[in-house]
Amino acid sequence: MASLSLPSLPLSLFSLVLEFTVFSFSQDLRPNRRSLSGKFLMDVALVAKSWYHVVDELVARYHRDTMELTFKFGSRVEVLAVRQQVQLRGRAVRDLRVRMGKSDGSRFVTGVWWWMEDREIPWDALFAHMRGLKRLDLRCMPLESCHVPILLQAAAKYCLQLEMLVLPRKQDMTKTVDCAAVRMMMQVLRGAMERWHLKGRCGGLKQLTVPSREEEDRLRTSTAFINDVIEFCPNVEYLDGYYYATDEMNDVTCEEKWMISLDT
Q1: Which of 45, 64, 83 is the C-terminal boundary of a domain?
Q2: CATH number at residue 253
Q3: pTM of the entire structure?
Q4: What is the Cα–Cα distance from 94 to 76, expressed in whole angstroms?
Q5: If you average pLDDT over every residue of the chain, what do you get?
């Protein structure tokens, strides 16, 4: 019996081999954000033509089911461009990243800019085209933006297959958050969690990352949050995590304290 070469394996099995051998390559949507590991995949692709074709197909699949939406100005032209992109590709997207802020040409800076807060973005129309979404990553959205709760409502309305949700943390760890804005986000999050549990096709979220929450009356708000997770996310596998509490230098910067009642 002739032995099988790696490229002749089914693509799903070949990708598992790459996950084991190629640094930071993963097809799994949780718990961490996927990346292509371009340099290392290129090394694999250069082994032979047959290897190149298989790697090329994996890369094509990644681009097909991953999308990043960027809002810098909220202008009509920008919104129309985003909407066209979603209309063309949204049905195949499983992994969505949304970011809002400004760019100086070399890096993107997340933040609440007044011109964005005044803009109307058709979140309902966007998420209506992405009903197969599995992962929603909002880490590059401004925590206190009025768009976050509206976006969450739209995602809960249309994306009933969602399993993974990553919410933003506050940008300046030395300042107190706008409690009214964060309270609104948490209220909407509760309703979204309930809908994904009762109406969704996965029985609730399996990954929930909420790095920043209300900073007033921590005992009450933390207890309420954990109770909601217990009720609406019974199958949760990842709840927050150390990775999301670190800065670029791997220093712990999150001051979050989960003060909950003993009964909980």
Answers
A1: 64
A2: 3.80.10
A3: 0.88
A4: 26
A5: 86
